Amino acid sequence: MVDAPVGIPESLVTTLQNARGIAVLTGSGISAESGVPTFRDAQTGLWARYEPQELATPEAFARDPRLVWEWYAWRRELVEQAVPNPGHRALAVLENRVPGVVLITQNVDGLHRRAGSQNVTELHGNITRSKCSVEEVVVEPREDDTDVPPSCPNCGAFLRPDVVWFGEALPVREFEEALEAARDCDLFFSIGTSGLVQPAASLALDALRNGAVIAEINSNQTPLSPYAEYLLRGRAGEVLPALMETAFGRDLGGHGG
Ligand code: OAD
């Protein structure tokens, strides 16, 4: 007999089946199995000598816009080549099986929507979009613009990726949605996130204070682990499908990838 990848506690399954509201916070760990490196993983190739924390800042962009734009162009390419994995697809299934699921993600890769999730709150933006670095509005670069970075078609300022950098505020509407979901849920999943970056990391504690049960799915211990009622150690792409199959049966309603 082959062991299940991780033990799924029965009481978690019951809580999941009966939940009236579920908030799910995901981080880059859920996309690791799609080949998108996690934020704090060592970078490879040309970018190995740079720290992500030193490139994803307004100061880095002001100092060297070309370098920062090229780093994002490289990451955007990785994201475009990636496909959603069974972890993303299991969360899309969850949304179909339980009412009131809000998926809050720190990921900028758009893989949750590509897996079929619809109620997605992107807290840190989306790498596939660009915005004007001065006017802060989302725009498409002109097709004939070969500059690096390209310039805003409206005002000529540099374009930048539409993501949140270290030291920048989160988009207000998205953060309010996330906070409301955390405060209203009875089950809060924290999946594939190190829980090191505020204010996203505090959402689980808001949920806990409002009476929710916390379930963590992560291959490692995190600062949130001591607060979690359920610790599912393992890869999200294995644990989540196993959990959904246990809770909702084998027919998970094939979402494409
Ligand atoms: P991190 O790189 O900090 O953490 C990734 C987490 O995923 C770690 O806790 C790993 O143990 C876990 N992990 C890795 N592979 C996994 C797998 N297959 N299944 C389950 N867990 C796995 O990434 P984040 O927590 O997403 O923000 O980082 C949060 C934010 O920090 C990012 O959105 C980024 C950065 O600041 C901004 O750029 C604003």
UniProtKB/TrEMBL annotation:
Catalysis performed (reactions): N(6)-acetyl-L-lysyl-[protein] + NAD(+) + H2O = 2''-O-acetyl-ADP-D-ribose + nicotinamide + L-lysyl-[protein]; N(6)-succinyl-L-lysyl-[protein] + NAD(+) + H2O = 2''-O-succinyl-ADP-D-ribose + nicotinamide + L-lysyl-[protein]
Taxonomy, superkingdom: Bacteria
Cofactors: Zn(2+)
Zinc listed as a keyword: yes
List of residues binding substrate: Y72, R75
Domain Deacetylase sirtuin-type: 1-257
Location relative to the cell: Cytoplasm
EC main group: transferase
Residues the entry annotates as binding NAD(+): Q106, N107, V108, D109, G192, T193, S194, N218, S219, N220, A236
Gene Ontology molecular function: histone deacetylase activity, NAD-dependent; NAD+ binding; protein-malonyllysine demalonylase activity; protein-succinyllysine desuccinylase activity; zinc ion binding
Stated name of the protein: NAD-dependent protein deacylase
Originating species: uncultured Rubrobacteraceae bacterium
Lineage: Bacteria, Bacillati, Actinomycetota, Rubrobacteria, Rubrobacterales
